[in-house]
């Protein structure tokens, strides 16, 4: 039975981290809210989230349905799917290392979101623009170097070589790191301009992943939406550093 | 061999979610940075985080060492420890439900942190007090009801009864929910005043957990630090609603 992915239509957002794994593995899945042909849209997703009958409702999208089981949160979905898709380390202990890395990505993604929404998710960006500028400045000067420096060091110190973040084969964490770099470059092109010099292993990983046949085909397809200013990674020039 | 927990001394912080599980299970563990008798302090923790030799360095505390394996991030540590401590659901699929719930708690905790640090973690609260007021107002009016309402509904809809958040036995998620409620009541006493009426199952869970013999003994011990204004849950009266 096909996996069912539930996430907002129109943005890459957090759902994209799951899509990349499903696409790389060419898994059989339905992107429920995007299947306009089935006339579903986000309605079914919201209905499920607010169901009074469902035993285990998720707090927010994305979530994955595998038969009766609903798995929520990106890192949890990937932890669950990883072994099934051949995208998790074979050594069981390393799966906890992978999960730890993925949760660091989760934290980074939350901080990216807060660069444009530092006060309230419920309010428009325009209503918190001044605070967004202050938060973005701190994010660029302190947090990007901290996170990217960390991932670079982990890559460099991987006993199995710096081609992968954990173990000696591609994992879902590598795919997520590709997405993080892609997103940061979209949102903060000036701040990220020299990133390949500062973080060479991370840049190499981004390039290698983007050229994998299944992933490259996905990136060229209509299923890959473009980054936009409704998603997590948003390009507001006023939040980037000056050239 | 005893588990080694690495976390800052002086605060409950994120480490407390792990401590509660270890204490409830009466597990053999060393709270490394607090073992002043061993003359260690936070130095050993930071050394490990910045090691150039370690295969898998963690991004931030808390992390757990079990022999050679280092497991980082609260939800990951609990996912790893849960079955070993008898604090995870026995049905494997429910462990992903538990992990999803724990990750929702992780998100809530990050939002609590940002009520007093909405602009930059690196700067003092006093430097971002105005923004903290705005963020706290939104947190109290929108986010507390959303998160607590969600957990209340999950408790009420648990097919095994509302005494536990998942399955029919105590899990680490129940312990974490106790801590969240305890922390929110400390940080925002006015906003939380009527919480037991609004969220009866959550309030009952908090009370039941606090009375479990092992946990009650821990809460009375010197190992349980008091909440304070260096941790995640901070009581700044100006951020709470007026009485």
Automatic annotation (TrEMBL), chains A, B:
Tree of life domain: Bacteria
Domain named GST C-terminal: residues: 91-239
Single annotated GO MF: glutathione transferase activity
SUPFAM superfamilies given in the database record: GST C-terminal domain-like, Thioredoxin-like
Membrane-crossing segments per the record: none
Pfam families associated with the record: GST_C_3
Keywords, alphabetical: Plasmid
Name assigned to this protein: Glutathione S-transferase, C-terminal domain-containing protein
GO biological process, one term: glutathione metabolic process
Taxonomic source organism: Rhizobium favelukesii
Keyword presence, Cytoplasm: no
Annotated ranges, domain GST N-terminal: 1-89
């Amino acid at each position: 039975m096909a996996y069912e992915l539930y996430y907002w239509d129109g943005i890459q957002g957090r759902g994209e981290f799951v899509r990349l794994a499903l696409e790389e593995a060419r898994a059989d899945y339905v992107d429920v809210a995007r299947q306009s042909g089935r006339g579903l849209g986000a309605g079914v997703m919201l209905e499920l989230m607010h169901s009074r009958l469902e035993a285990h409702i998720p707090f927010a999208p994305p979530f994955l349905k595998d038969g009766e089981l609903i798995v929520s949160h990106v890192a949890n979905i990937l932890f669950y799917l990883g072994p099934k898709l051949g995208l998790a380390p074979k050594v069981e202990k390393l799966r906890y290392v992978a999960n730890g890395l993925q949760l660091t990505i989760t934290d980074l993604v939350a901080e990216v979101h807060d660069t444009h929404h530092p006060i309230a998710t419920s309010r428009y960006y325009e209503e918190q623009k001044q605070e967004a500028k202050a938060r973005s400045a701190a994010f660029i000067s302190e947090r990007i170097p901290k996170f990217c420096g960390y991932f670079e060091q982990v890559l460099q110190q991987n006993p199995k070589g710096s081609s992968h973040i954990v173990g000696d084969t591609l994992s879902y964490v590598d795919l997520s790191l590709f997405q993080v770099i892609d997103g940061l470059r979209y949102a903060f092109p000036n701040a990220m301009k020299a990133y390949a010099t500062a973080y060479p292993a991370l840049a190499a990983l981004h390039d290698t992943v983007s050229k994998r046949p299944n992933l490259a085909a996905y990136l060229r397809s209509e299923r890959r939406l473009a980054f936009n200013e409704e998603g997590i990674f948003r390009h507001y020039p006023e939040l980037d550093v000056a050239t």
